[in-house]
Design a protein that fits this description.
eight-stranded mixed β-sheet; 11 helices
Length: 381
Amino acid sequence: MHQTNGNTAAKESSIPIVDFGNWTHGNHHQRKAIADKFVNACQTVGFVYIINHGVPTSKIDEAFAMSEKLFHLSRDQKMLAPHPPGGAIHRGYSWPGFEKITQTFGDEENRDELKKELRSISDVKESYEIGSENNPDQANIWLPEEVLPGFKSFTTDFYWRMHDVAKMLLRALALGIGIEDEEFFLRCHSGNNNQLRLLHYPPVPAAELESQSASRMPAHSDWGTLTMLFQDDCGGLEVENPHQEGDFLPAHPLKDAIVMNVGDLLQRWSNGKNSLPFPFPIPFPIPLLERHRTLITPDTLKSTLHRVTLPPKQDRFTGDDRLTRARYSIPYFVAPEGPTVVECLAACTDERRPPRYKPIKWVEYMLMRAGMNYEDGPVEG
C-alpha cells in the first residue's frame, strides 16, 4: 500500500531524508552528525523523511489494515464512539464535515463570522483520535470491542511505539540545537498528551476539489511540538516551498518512512518566524523583519504550512468524474503536558534576535487553535 522509491520521492519533493539507523547504538560523533542533519532539515524545510526509525514494517502494515477495517464499518457503528462537540477534547470518531482545518488562531475579532465562512466548504475526510489511557483530561472514546475486535489493544500498543520514536527525535533536536541537556524536551513530553489519528479521505470527484466547493485538508501548520506521519501510496500531501510563499511541493510517499514536521511549539521554542498573523507584539515593524529575514531565521525551526489535495498521479482517478482514490494516513501528534510553558530557548535568542513570542501554556495555545476547527455546540452527525 505505502510504496514509492525513496530517492525519487525525496528528490522531487525537496524534503531531506535523515537515517536514524546509527542513533541507538552509535557513538557521540555519529549521533551528533544525525542530529545536525535532522535540525538542518527542520530549519530549512520544516519537513523530514525519517528512515530506520525503529517501527517494524509489519506494524506499519497492521496499522493501515486496522485503519481500513475501521473506516469500512457502517456509519452507525463508527458513531458508537463520536468525537465530542467543540475543540477541547480530541478523541473518538469525526465524520466527514465535522472538523474544519484552518490556519486561523481563534482570537480574531470576527471569530464567529470567520468560522461560519470557513465551514461553508467542507473537508471531505473522516478520522479517529486516540490518546494515552493515563490522560484524564483527554479520556479515550472507544468502540465496543465486538464492533472491531483488537482495535483498542493494537492502537494502544502502536501509540506507545510511536512515542518511543518521538523520544529519539526530541533528543536529537536538543543535541542539534545546541542544548547541553539532551533530555530537555523529554522532561515535558511524557507521552500522555500525544495523539494518534487514523485518517481516511473518501473518494471525491476531482472537480469538487479543483473548484474549491470541497476540500480534503486546507493549508495549515500543526499546533504541537512535532508530527510524525505514515501515508499510503495515493499521494496528495503537499508542503509549502521554503523559497516561495504560496507555492506547494509534493511530499511523495516513501515506503515505511515517517514524514516528520515541525509544529508551532518548536517554532516558538526556537524563536522562529510565524506563518500565522502575529498574536503578540514584536519589538520592531514587520517590514523591517522581512528585510532582515535571513538574520532572524536561519537557526530556528520552521513550522511549515502543508495541505492534502488532489493526488499527483493520473492513475489515482477513475471514471468520467475523475473520482479520486481513497487515501489513508496515520499522523501522530507530539505535545507536552498541558501546563507546560513554551518560551524562547536561551540558545535561540541574542541581542539581534530578541524573543518573538510571549510565553504561553500549551493548553491555552491548543484551545485557541482548536476552537476554530470544531462547532462549539452539538453537531448533527
